[in-house]
Write the structure tokens for this entry.
Amino acid sequence: MDGLNDRDRAVLALEARAWRTPGAKEAAIREQLGLAPVRYYQVLNGLLDREDALAHDPLLVNRLRRLREQRRGRR
């Protein structure tokens, strides 16, 4: 087992999806996970620092880590 719980896996799966319309992702976050978008992004950010999340989906986690570092570099 990878150490991730069901919610962690669902957050990563939701983040991996492509969103076609504005607001669709936020609606899915609320409906599918029962989280406010702010809480979702807190959980996601925490997952990016976990090695078990990296092992679960290395392409997604590495891509999101790169994006996070780019945003931090612009601040």
